[in-house]
């Protein structure tokens, strides 16, 4: 059993937790993920590591309530236990040797982008961060990004905070001004990453994306997390759990990934409604 | 003692009705009654030169256990089997006896061989199975990677020899392929749990949610005081055909489909695990995994399940018994047929249509078998212009797996062959001292019993290695 030692509600749908898992905390690196289960017979939820404290033996997760399982997790409190927490899985992000990096995070994806920005800052790289949200209520981790970024751009779709517009606007402006980076790293909804990749493409700067497809075991067994990369015109199947989760953004078939991403949307919506009704009765 | 039974045919296995069982996940084969078991045991010649024993990868003393069944001494029979096999209830169910022990049975010359597997299952199911004898602790620690059949066998053999044994399992439940792969109706999970519990009672420690190669690597296990490590991490990534449409919604690997149903319990009515079911299901492949996937799909409520296989019935690699069961249950076989493309729905006028990208069918091509080549093997060859379409809502690819790269990537000096399988010698030893391996991680997709055989060999070699080291 794994104890929730700290819980913080970041916005109405996003929760942060520190989970006691010393073996995972000892090894975790930015870009890797964990898989947890909220209850016995529950689904295995992959979540990217949002931080870790090797000394305290805790791993930080930040998740959005999107379905029944994440809803149940959000109802857990400090001191509660979850039955399963396994990791760290996937390959760590490759950050060594980078001098100037542009980080682009969208929504809850910012939670995953943050440890990468922090690590780069620690390694002495100059970090520029662009973080985007639908509106002010959904804004998370602004102070944390400020602390590790030389420049920070905060965008909201509705203009209720920061600058109105999507994350591509400041990127395009920077490129128009002749800004150069060693690498662009983008994490967020698939559609956002697709547009970021398209905005970066003309510059030829390497652009890495973090993929979060449907997954079961996370160790290279089930094949559910497969993605198609297009390398020199050839379609190549890769598995996010062992080959990723970071991939070269120029090679990802985003349209296919988006189609696969909504495979169980209906099922999940029903399960979520059922769970909400069930727990509303209890609460 | 009962009289010798000269009947040439074996006692048939009592089975659930094919129509009924196609709608439930209860075990298909019900097991012999006492009367049937004794009657079948009396068919055994009790040969002095017992050829059957040499056909068994773990060399169960078959004539001796059967002679105990003849006198209804179930505990005695169980004790004999347990001397060499850690998992009799499992082997009695899933071993391909027809190509192993039973293939060597002298009764098989004139008629059917003795139903050794069914007798083994009978014994395992009815014995109380008092714990096997255990040597006193010898102060040595060994680690096991994976709790599938090879790992459980290795753990069972070494705990009995007085070792401290810890098994690391990546999943939240023990059993490996016995849990996530083989369906409930062929191997009830209660039986797997019982076998794991027996090992726990003997003192084997199980650490779930630990991925060796990620959470802990093999070098660190040695630093932690383990003197030997057995890698039984199983088969890895599922193979796909690399044809267009394999990423469509509704295309599964057999691993994913079976894991959703078995491990994640999608077969239960109130499960929170989504799985596509109903409609037309196409399973590509002809092995045991293909049969398991097809029969699972049927039980989940498919209207029609079709196996698509590129060779003919004779070459079908699945166990005959499972193929017969599948046919009885109404699974159709589209043989000498190979998929060339999976077809999907596309609403040109509405890109937001949720049905876009879902499977609608499979485009196949007819195959014929070539003349035998120098190895006598007849290759399937596509017949030009014979393409046709089969409607489908779900397509399950059951065409094998490639070894998992994780342990190789994270263990310096561990040699693998060009397919990625871990290289071992006859003792199951890898290129690294103190590191042994067996099962699918070495051979690629194979059987439960051959994995157990490998676990057994490696356990013996480990014992010798550690004792000689002192």
Describe the structure.
The complex is a heterodimer of chains A (283) and B (470). Chain A has 283 residues and is an alpha/beta fold. Chain A folds into two domains: 88 residues, Beta Barrel (Elongation Factor Tu (Ef-tu), domain 3), CATH 2.40.30.10; 117 residues, Rossmann fold. Chain A has a seven-stranded mixed beta sheet with strand order 12-11-10-9-13-14-17, sandwiched between helices. A five-stranded antiparallel beta sheet of chain A has the order 5-6-2-1-7. Chain A is globular and about 55 Å long. In chain A, 49% of the residues are buried. The model of chain A has no long low-confidence stretch (mean pLDDT 91). Chain B starts with 17 loop residues before the first helix and ends with a helix. Chain B is α/β, with parallel strands linked by helices and 470 residues long. The mean pLDDT of chain B is 92. Helices cover 33% and strands 14% of the residues of chain B. Chain B has a five-stranded parallel beta sheet with strand order 3-2-1-4-14. Chain B has a five-stranded parallel beta sheet with strand order 5-13-6-7-8. The interface between A and B is large, with 44 and 41 residues.
CATH level-two architecture of the largest domain in chain B: 3-Layer(bba) Sandwich
Number of domains of chain A: 2
Alpha-carbon distance between the termini of chain A? 24 Å
Shape of chain B: globular
Strand content of chain A: 25-35%
Shape of chain A: globular
Which CATH class of the largest domain in chain B is shown? Alpha Beta
According to CATH, the fold-level topology of the largest domain in chain B is: FAD/NAD(P)-binding domain
CATH superfamily of the largest domain in chain A: Nucleotide-binding domain of ferredoxin-NADP reductase (FNR) module
CATH architecture of the largest domain in chain A: 3-Layer(aba) Sandwich
């Amino acid at each position: 059993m794994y104890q929730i030692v700290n819980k913080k509600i970041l916005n109405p749908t996003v929760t942060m937790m520190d989970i006691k898992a010393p073996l995972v905390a000892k090894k975790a690196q930015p870009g890797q993920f964990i898989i947890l289960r909220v209850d016995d017979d529950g689904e295995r939820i992959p979540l990217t590591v949002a931080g870790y404290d090797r000394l305290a033996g805790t791993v930080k997760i930040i998740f959005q309530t999107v379905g029944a399982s994440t809803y149940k997790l959000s109802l857990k409190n400090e001191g509660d236990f979850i039955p399963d927490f396994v990791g760290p899985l996937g390959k760590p992000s490759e950050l060594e040797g980078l001098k100037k990096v542009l980080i682009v995070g969208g929504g809850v994806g910012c939670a995953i982008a943050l440890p990468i920005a922090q690590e780069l800052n620690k390694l002495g790289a100059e970090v520029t961060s662009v973080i985007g949200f639908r509106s002010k209520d959904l804004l998370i981790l602004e102070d944390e990004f400020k602390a590790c970024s030389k420049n920070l751009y905060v965008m909201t779709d509705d203009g209720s905070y920061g600058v109105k517009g999507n994350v591509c606007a400041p990127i395009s402006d920077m490129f128009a001004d002749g800004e150069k980076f060693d690498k662009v790293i983008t994490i967020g909804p698939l559609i956002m990453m697709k547009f970021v990749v398209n905005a970066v493409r003309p510059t030829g700067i390497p652009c890495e994306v973090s993929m979060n497809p449907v997954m079961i075991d996370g160790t290279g067994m089930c094949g559910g997390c497969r993605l198609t990369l297009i390398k020199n015109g050839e379609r190549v199947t890769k598995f996010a759990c062992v080959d990723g989760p970071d991939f070269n953004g120029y090679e990802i078939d985003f349209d296919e990934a988006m189609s696969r991403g909504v495979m169980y949307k209906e099922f999940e919506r029903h399960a979520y409604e059922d769970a909400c009704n069930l727990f509303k009765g209890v609460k | 003692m009962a009289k010798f039974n000269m009947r040439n045919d074996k006692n048939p296995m009592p089975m659930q009705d094919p129509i009924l069982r196609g709608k439930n996940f209860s075990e298909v084969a019900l097991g012999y009654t006492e009367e049937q078991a004794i009657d079948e045991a009396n068919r055994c010649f009790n040969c002095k030169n017992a050829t059957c024993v040499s056909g068994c990868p773990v060399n169960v003393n078959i004539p001796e256990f059967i002679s105990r069944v003849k006198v209804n001494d179930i505990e005695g029979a169980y004790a004999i089997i347990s001397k060499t096999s850690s998992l009799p209830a499992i082997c009695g169910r899933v071993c391909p006896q027809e190509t192993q022990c039973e293939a060597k049975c002298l009764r098989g010359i004139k008629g059917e061989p003795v139903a050794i597997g069914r007798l083994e299952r009978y014994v395992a199911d009815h014995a109380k199975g008092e714990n096997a004898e255990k040597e006193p602790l010898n102060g040595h620690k060994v680690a096991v990677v994976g709790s599938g059949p090879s790992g459980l066998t290795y753990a069972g053999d070494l705990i009995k020899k007085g070792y401290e044994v810890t098994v690391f399992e990546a999943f939240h439940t023990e059993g490996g392929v016995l849990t996530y792969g083989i369906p409930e109706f062929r191997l009830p999970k209660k039986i797997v749990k019982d076998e794991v519990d027996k090992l726990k009672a003997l003192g084997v420690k199980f650490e779930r949610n630990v991925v060796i190669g990620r959470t802990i690597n093999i070098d660190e296990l040695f630093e932690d005081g383990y003197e030997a490590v057995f890698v039984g991490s199983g088969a890895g990534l599922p193979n796909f055909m690399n044809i267009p449409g394999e990423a469509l919604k509704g295309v599964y690997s057999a691993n994913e489909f079976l894991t959703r149903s078995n491990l994640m319990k999608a077969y239960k009515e109130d499960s929170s695990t989504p799985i596509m079911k109903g409609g037309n299901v196409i399973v590509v492949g002809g092995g045991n995994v293909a049969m398991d996937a097809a029969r699972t799909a049927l039980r989940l409520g498919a209207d029609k399940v079709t196996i698509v296989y590129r060779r003919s019935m004779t070459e079908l690699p699945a166990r005959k018994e499972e193929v017969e069961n599948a046919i009885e249950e109404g699974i159709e076989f589209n043989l000498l047929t190979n998929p060339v493309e999976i077809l999907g729905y596309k609403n040109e006028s509405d890109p937001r249509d949720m049905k876009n990208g879902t499977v609608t069918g499979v485009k196949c091509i007819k195959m014929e078998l070539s003349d035998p080549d120098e190895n006598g093997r007849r290759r399937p060859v596509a017949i030009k212009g014979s393409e046709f379409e089969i409607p489908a809502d779900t397509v399950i690819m059951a065409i094998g797996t490639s070894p998992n790269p994780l342990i190789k990537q994270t263990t310096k000096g561990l040699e693998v062959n060009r397919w990625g399988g871990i290289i071992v010698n006859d003792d199951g030893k890898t290129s690294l001292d103190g590191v042994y391996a067996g099962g699918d991680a070495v051979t690629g997709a194979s059987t439960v019993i051959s994995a157990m055989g490998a676990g057994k060999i490696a356990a013996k070699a480990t014992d010798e290695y550690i004792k000689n080291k002192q």
